[in-house]
Amino acid sequence: MYLYNKRRVAELLDTVPLIRDIRTAKKNQHFVCPYDKLIVCSDKPPAHEFVELIRPARFETDDDETFYQYKLVHDLFSVHWMHVNPMAATTSIMLNPWKHKLMPDEVLALIDFIIGSHFDAQVAHNDDKLDWFQFLNSKDFARRLYVGYQRKSPRDYDDLSQTYLYGKRRGQQVKNYNKAEEQGLDGEIWTRLEKRRKRRDKNSRPTLSQFLLDERNDALKNVVIVDIDKFSGRDKIMRRINKFGTFQEAYMTLTKEEKRKLKLHEAFRHPLVDLGALFKKELDQWLSMSPHLHLMKRIFPVLQSSWSGKDTLTYRTVRIDPINLHFTRAHLEPYVGKEIYRLRQSYFTDE
User: Fold this and answer.
1) Are 92 and 79 in contact (CB under 8 A)?
2) Whole-number Å distance between alpha carbons of 294 and 284
3) Can you tell me whether residue 214 is helix, strand or coil?
4) Are 130 and 193 in contact (CB under 8 A)?
5) Single pTM value for the model
6) Which of 142, 179, 192, 310 could form a disulfide with 164 if both were Cys (CB 3.0 to 4.6 A apart)?
7) Cβ neighbours of residue 191 under 8 Å, at least 6 residues apart?
């Protein structure tokens, strides 16, 4: 296996204008992004120019912790390529848009920089997330949180009432935890709700363009923050919550009929927070940082509905390029913001 010296890789990549621009770009202090982690896969290897640039940092090792022949870790992304397992993608790229404050067009530009074109990339994994500040701590969240597709009680990690895990990592795990503690912020209340989505079936993976332009109606689906304050203290569910500590475990002790009636209650029908609506709001805020992509998200459904059904309209068909806008109309141009990055040009020059 070949690894790449992280320090040497940083020195080499920091000479690239694209990386410099992303690192030095001024970002809003209150940066909003609903994605904590993305894993993007491709059946194509990294671009020849990318491999040649980082070649001086390569060294051979007996490390066999991964199913790939090459592994590179950089502050902005990590890349594995040349799979040993034939069922795996040729290249796997991991990014964290929220942590590194990556705008959507920066995500696309990084993928283009690494493999040549984001049209050849699919999303295999995404962590959807929402944050709350000075609202409910993780223990109070657990008293209200319901995950409809889980059949087991949540796990209180290390019994510290700081992290609650619903389901296993291999599935669509939901996690509610104290983000302030993780970030070393004493005295702050910062709670994060996170839902993991893995797509092992290659045929179920959307292209990166499709994923970014999607309405994401599936985000945090079947996850509810029940407004338990609408229950009476005499209600059975409240006695069970006080006994077990979490709504999920309390709910699981009810009979089938009791569960049915509970879901008709106002506490369920009008939850404390509309998670789907809040996620879409933050997704729209994030996309608005990249005007071209934001515009494409708005006009693509219109184009799709007016396509007359003669052919299947896809993101490739009309060349919807979120940065370059190969497909455009004169009356739309006044509403398009200035381009930040141009795709499919060389990122190794200042041109």
Assistant:
1) yes
2) 8
3) coil
4) yes
5) 0.85
6) 142
7) 131, 132, 135, 136, 137, 138, 141, 176, 177, 178, 179, 180
| Letter string b/e over residues 146-167, b meaning 16 or more CB atoms within 10 A of that residue's CB | bbeebeebbebeeeeebbbbbb
pLDDT in tens, 192-211: 999 999 998 998 999 998 89
> What confidence tens digit (pLDDT) does each residue in 294-315 have?
888 887 666 656 655 545 555 4
Helix/strand/coil percent split, the chain, to 5: 35, 20, 45
Angle at 319 between CA 314 and CA 325, to 5 degrees: 130
Per DSSP, the residues of 89-120 read -SEEEEE-TTTTT--HHHHHHHHHHHHS-GGG
Helix crossing, 104-115 with 17-24: angle to 10°?
160
Give the residues across from 83 on adjacent strands. Answer: 68
Can you say how many angstroms the Cα of residue 56 is from the centroid of all Cα atoms in its chain?
Answer: 32
Q: Which residue in this structure is represented by tokens 């929220």?
A: 98
User: 183: exposed, middle or buried (C-beta count within 10 Å: 0-12, 13-18, 19+)?
Assistant: exposed
Pull the structure tokens for residue 101. Answer: 């404050």
